[in-house]
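EI: anyone free to look at a 355-residue chain?
SC: sure, send it
EI:
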Amino acid sequence: MKNKFLQIGLGYLVAFLLLTDTQLLAQTAPNNDSAAHYLNLALVDKQNGRRLDLLKKLDKAISFQSQDPIVLKGLGTILADQRKFGPALDHFNKAIELNPTDTNLLRQSLELAYQLRQHEQVIRLAELSKKANPKADVALYLAKVYYETEDYGKAIQYLTQAGKENPTLAEVPYLLAKSYADMTNFKGAIPYFLKALALDPKQPNWTYELGLSYYAIHDDANALKYIQLAAEVGYKKDNDYLENLAIAYLNVGQFEPGVAILKEALGRRPSDFNLLNMLAEAFYGKAKFTEAFEYWDRVLEYDKGNASALYMIGMSYQKMGGKQNADRGIALCDKAIEMDPSLQSLKQKKMMAGL
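SC: here you go
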């Protein structure tokens, strides 16, 4: 994610660089031994594609430690263009100290500080931006910083403000949804996921997260709807996705497609205990006890000491009916309890529930 943000930020910086190059050449009249002089030479090298010469001129220009904000801004810009982002921000900050009302530079510095995840710098530059221009829309930057540092209270505060600054930006309600979801307040998250997708419906990750949020509050119909939709708009059907899709099918009573997906996943991960247990439980819930204990048997093939699987095989035999099956099932359950005495409480709960 950091690399993606850096690429986005570079777009702004390159645009700024193209503007600044000509401004510097026009505005500075340096002597032949100054930062401005070597900066202009570096810009000429850049225009002519001579990167090695550019870097030498750039080092020379930096060595003069200029106090001219125009030169410092130019140095920062060309450093950013050469992907030297840390030194670029240092020069931008020096220029801002000398000219704190340069709103253009403040915006570029704020963007770069965010790309570099320098959170304290982002907060400082956002405050300076507001002083220079009270209408500066910096709330989203602050919201992201507070979200990334898990201060969800402040994140929500600034996201709400950012939503007022730009009501059409889908990222704002999405981050609000994430903030609530990260606090396990899924009911609070869902309306913001829906709002984000209304603004930008072709977002597979957002759609999938919405489906999982519905799953978390046991709204099984909507969970299945949005988990399915996520794949339709491009979400990768990896193992985790297929497992959750299968659970969503089973939760709404669609046994056949749910089991089919779990079996497909098990074919790729034949010793996955989670899949084996889910299949066993799915068959057990449908009173298909023979199939159920076959999957718990496979668990025992991989882990002979798995008392829980042995206990459920015993329960399956008891559910199949007949004295012989019942006796065998009780014996297996008792053996499982000997292996893991905590299963005694499970036996008591099942007896009370008539299971």
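EI: The domain at 1-136 is CATH 1.25.40.10 (Serine Threonine Protein Phosphatase 5, Tetratricopeptide repeat).
SC: 👍
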